[in-house]
Design brief:
Helix 5 links the parallel strand 4 and strand 5. A seven-stranded parallel sheet has the order 3-2-1-4-5-6-7, with helices on both faces. The protein is 42% helix and 13% strand. By secondary structure, the chain is an alpha/beta fold. The chain contains nine helices and seven strands. The structure holds NADPH dihydro-nicotinamide-adenine-dinucleotide phosphate (NDP) and 2-hydroxyethylsulfonic acid. The site of 2-hydroxyethylsulfonic acid has 6 residues, from loops. 2-hydroxyethylsulfonic acid binds next to loops.
Amino acid sequence: MIDWTDRTVMITGATAGFGAAIARRFAALGARLVLCGRRTERLAELARELAAVPVYAAPLDVRDRAAIDAFVAALPPAFAAIVLLVNNAGLALGLDRADLADPDDWDIMIDTNLKGLVQVTRAILPGMVARDRGHIINIGSVAGSHPYPGGNVYGATKAAVAQFSANLQADLIATRLRVTNIEPGLCGGSEFSQVRFHGDAERAAGVYQGTEPLTAEDVAEAVVWAASRPPHVNISRIEMMPDCQAPGGLAVYRR
Ligand code: NDP
Ligand code: 8X3
């Protein structure tokens, strides 16, 4: 098993859901943590909870490129050599048909899930390449491979994340860097559906009714597993679903 105690792990979107679970999991393994998200109070709480390991937590909106550069430039020396970047920050907004969807929701998803993820990667990558050491784990989604009604732009951003991950792997072939795209399906216990339905708790709860969905801890486990393979092993993709979910939604509309 890899010794994480001399390794720095950066997690975007650590203030809730998967990001917080991934942070807790790596803290239990003794890693140094760089945590970010927009909600400063949540970051402070998590840093206090995980005080047994070195934690650098600071606010970052991944949609702001200048803020990303400033965040990376301000990393204290002890936290600057990131060996694992988990690009987790992201969101779905709305589940409306494309002709009815809110164009502002579309912009926010593209700016966060795609533009934010690629620009955080771009800011961290040069250091990893210079050290010839690093792993980028992106949090994609089954929505990037399997269409469903109302998934329109959310799924498109996650498809782009999958292809960006594969293209990164191609770019980095001559280095020891690794790239993984983790693609979870239905997952409960995070704020994902509350955010998707703009705070409608009843509608959010309905998504999981009668199911036993994945948990944030299941996703964190997959992240730790992919990151802990021997250095020559690159896990390119992990698609994971709860056993109550399956692909196979080809639609036929009969008039
Ligand atoms: P949560 O809503 O619980 O967490 C999302 C995290 O992203 C929060 O920490 C939030 O922090 C952060 N975030 C959102 N926008 C920004 C931004 N502009 N800048 C920085 N951070 C941001 O959702 P999940 O934990 O469920 O989702 C995490 C990732 O997993 C997302 O990429 C999501 O698309 C993906 N996913 C989720 C699935 C699910 O069913 N839950 C399944 C498959 C993939 P803050 O608000 O403080 O900025
Ligand atoms: C989250 C899973 O099915 O809501 O990415 O798109 S789904």
